Each structure stands twice: as structure tokens, then as C-alpha cells.
Amino acid sequence: MRRSHFPAEVERAIRAAPAHSLPESLEKAIVEGLPDVVVVRLLLADYHLSVLLSPDGELDDAPIQMLGTAAGRVFISRRPMLEPVTLEDGSAACEILAPVLARGERLGVLGVVTTVPEPGRLVDEIDEIAEIAGAALKVAWNHTDRYERVRRRRRLTLAAELQWQLLPGQGCAGSEYSLAGHLEPAYSIGGDNFDWSTEQDHLALTVTNGSGTGIQAALLTSLTVGALRNARRSGGDVAEQASLAGDVVHARYRGEEFTETLVLRIDLADGLVSAVDAGSPRLLRMRGAKVTPIELEHQMPLGMFAETAYEIQHFNIEPGDRLVIVSDGVFSAAAPSGGDYGTLVLEQQIRRTRLQDTSEVPLSIIASLIDYHEGRDLADDAVVLCLDWK
């Protein structure tokens, strides 16, 4: 008979495993602890969040598409489900699929195929084990290259390597909010970036639109984000963060290069937002079905001038509000036929996401942006960040 504390035993097993062998330790623990298990598979999402890939697979193995598959639906919805399967010998079985999450960030999907007569009674345990695996993966990620290799269907540019390693993740969630962001083009992003930090009483957010292209843009953004983090971790408010980062960038580039950055602090108790708008990232709010730009005073980009003093502005968000922040590569993107995306399409596309989960909003807007380019490659880096305030 199964032990009621089985998920805790799985957690102990994968915690004791080397970082690079977590999938094998997870499989072994599940097979030993659950009845009639035929297959255990751990699938990880690629950089585009368009397919799921096995850590054991080679680059030429067929990926599992997010759209039109049971595993994809579980990843998108973040909810477990049962999927009937037929084994090689023709007998019937069932696959229990559960999302692999780490504090709200979607990493992949765990699938457990079993022939047990009542698989539904195992769903809660598999769901809990998938979340345990997600937390363990997030820790193991920095100790091995195995999982990073899985995510790449082709080689990243060096600039993209720097930018992805700079990110805190692609999503997080708390009782007051859920948050998700995405970068495109995923394999060759240059200077755009987003960052966040969750605290007991507030959420800190920044979106950076770096100037230039390639490795130079990535280095400029890395310097900017590092300076912002340094000021934030030293207790500086959003104005002090912007001022310190601006001085650091100016000391290095003497005004020849700069970064356009939006710096936000959101108080968790009442939704009061403190903001410094130092450039081009655009902020829009959807309340109900109405989408409106939040107009802030545009102040000097970080690093354009030395010893720039920044003013803090305030606005409030209410439960049910959705904030969407986009970089200049989204807002000002032009179609071959003319007209920019931010003026003609963006607000309408945000309204269309009204019923979507937070994690799907950046991908939906990016997909709409790519369609707007009428098949041409994106002319500039694109960042989309979505915050749902609960």
C-alpha cells in the first residue's frame, strides 16, 4: 500500500541527487513508490515557450507542440489532467500530466503513465510532486548546463546568452499578483530586458530598452541592471535607483550610450505604484474591458547626463487590473504597409487577452506583433511584461 507521505519521500530523493541527474532520480522515486507505473517523463519548455522537450532527447528528436497536445494544454493552463493512452502491447493505460512550476514560473510538464484502475486518485499526489520537482529544478539549474541545453533548439547569440542569464525568470506569482514576461527574438535578443524582485511588502519591477545592437547592447544593459539591483538592494527608492544607475552608465559611456528604463515599486498592501519613467518603455492598464495608457512624465534616459535627479510619480492599481509594459521594439514596430503597432493594434490585442492567464499574455502579444510584421523578422528587440493585480 502507498504511503501517505510519498511526495515528501520523492522530495528527499531528488534533493539528495546530483543537479545533473534530477530527472533520473525523480523517475526512480516515482516508479518505486507508485503502483503500476509504466513510464515517467519530464518535459521542459524551450525559449520560445512553443514546444516541450525531453532532457534525454537529442536536438533532432521531435518536440511536443504546445498547441494541440495534452501536455501543451497542461503547460498553458497550469492544471493537471488525465489522458488515456494505449501501450505498445495494445492494453489501455492513463497518463497523469501535471505542470512543473517554480513559484508560479512554468518550467515544463511531468507525465506519469500508469495502469492502476483508478488513476484519478493519484492526480493530487502527482501534481504535488511536479511542484516539488519544479522547485528542485530551479535550484539545480545553476549547477549544471543540462537543462539550459534542453531549452535551446538552436544556438543563442552571445548577446542573447547574456540577456537570458540576466533575467530573474519568466514568471512568478504571489497572493496579491501574478507576473510573466517574454523576450523576442528569443535566440538573438540584444539590449532589452526586464527584472523584478519580490519582497514582504512590495514588488519591484524594471523594464529596460537598451540602445544599440548585439553584444554592445547586452553589455550596456547588463551594466544598467546590475547598477539598478545594487541601488535597490542597498535600500534606495526608485528615484535613487535610477540616479545611481544613470551615473554608472554615464561614467562608462560618457553619454554616447544610454538606456531607457521604467522603474516601478508596487506596495502590496494598497496597490500604490511609485514610478520613474526614464525613457521609452510603455505602460498600459486594462480595467475591465477598457485599455488606457498610463501617462507618466518622460525623464532623461539613464546615462545620458551625469548626476541626473529623478522625480517619483504615483498612481494606483485596483484588484482585477492588468498592467502591460512593452519596450519600444513592440510599441513602435512598423508593418511593411505602414503604421506602428502601438498606435494601431496594441490596445486591441491587450483587450483580446482579457480571459487569458497572465503567463499567456506576453506570448499572445508577441505572436500578434510577429503577424503585424507580415512575415518579416522583427526589426528591434521586443519585451512584453504582464502583471495581474489580484
Protein traits:
Phosphatase 2c, domain 1; six-stranded antiparallel sheet; alpha+beta; Beta-Lactamase; 2 domains; single chain; 390 residues; 17 strands
Task: Outline the secondary-structure elements.
Elements (H helix, E strand, L loop, with lengths): L5 H11 L5 H12 L3 E9 L5 E3 L10 E2 L4 H8 L3 E6 L5 E11 L2 E10 L8 H18 L5 H6 L6 H9 L4 E3 L3 E8 L7 E7 L3 E9 L3 H20 L4 H16 L5 E9 L4 E7 L3 E6 L2 E4 L19 E4 L5 E5 L1 H4 L9 H4 L1 H7 L8 H12 L9 E8 L1
Antiparallel strand pairs: 1-2, 1-6, 2-3, 4-5, 5-6, 7-8, 8-17, 9-10, 10-11, 11-12, 12-15, 13-14, 13-16, 16-17
Helix pairs in contact: 1-2, 1-4, 6-7, 7-8
Mean of pLDDT? 92
The biggest sheet, with number of strands, parallel, antiparallel or mixed sense and barrel status, is:
6 strands, antiparallel
Give helix and strand order, one letter per element, not per position.
HHEEEHEEEHHHEEEEHHEEEEEEHHHHE
Which stretches are poorly predicted, pLDDT < 50 over at least 5 residues? none
What is the level 1 CATH name of the largest domain? Alpha Beta
* Spatial strand arrangement across the major sheet: 3-2-1-6-5-4
User: What percentage of the residues does DSSP assign to strands (E)?
Assistant: 25-35%
What is the distance, rounded to the nearest whole angstrom, between the alpha carbons of the first and last residues?
41 Å
Rg from C-alpha positions?
A: 22 Å
The tally of structural domains comes to 2
| Global geometry | elongated
Instruction: Please give the oligomerization state of what you see.
Output: single chain
Structural class by SSE content: alpha+beta
